Amino acid sequence: MKKLLLIAAVAVLGANVNAQEVRFGAKAGYSYSTLKAKGDGHSETSDPLHTYYIGGLVEYKLSDKFALQGELLYSPLGGKMNVEAADPEDPTTFLNVKAKQTYHTLLIPISAKYFITEGLSVSAGANVGLILSAKQKYSADLGLGPLVELEGSDEVDIKDQLNTLNLAPFLGAEYMLENGLFFDARYNLGVSNLAKHAEGGYKLTNSFIQVGVGFKFGGN
């Protein structure tokens, strides 16, 4: 009986220690997203889509120097691609028409972290993106400021033209204050071909930069 009580006590203490190594949190911030299209020896990088991300995280501290972190985020990603007119006399040639593509994406980043100091860490991992829906809308650059939406141009569903998986390895850095408030930044390099019906070696990828702020609860 005494042995059972001793084992139970050790198990409870171990559980408490483990619980102190786990921190939950929330984060949000700014995303700078671009698309890159390659095919037939040509390459084009889109104008950026300035957007945001928001979600939660869990961090498991393995030691004073290493940790694992998983997150669940939502972000509308994409970019603004140039539209080439088939006819040189087409008015769109002079309006510099762009196709704004927005991919509503669920992001699942998994990373390994190394702590340079108690508050400063660097990380590397992979961002598994799942495109939930995708829309496209045409707009024109008249040289007078922001893009102008073309009259009669409705937002079109293009989800059936895209693959769902958007895999992006990333590198990042984070600085956390003693009260749990932290600031982080990442560069995510898109490697998945998002074009579902790719022909002639055509490839469409989505890379993005994230800069944000968050708060972690719990910990030692």
From TrEMBL:
Keywords: Signal. The keyword Ribosomal protein does not apply. Residues 1-19 form the signal peptide. Transmembrane segments: none annotated. It holds the Pfam family OMP_b-brl_2. Residues 18-194 form the Outer membrane protein beta-barrel domain. InterPro entries: Beta-barrel_OMP_2 (IPR025665), OMP/PagP_B-barrel (IPR011250). This is PorT family protein. It comes from Chryseobacterium lactis.
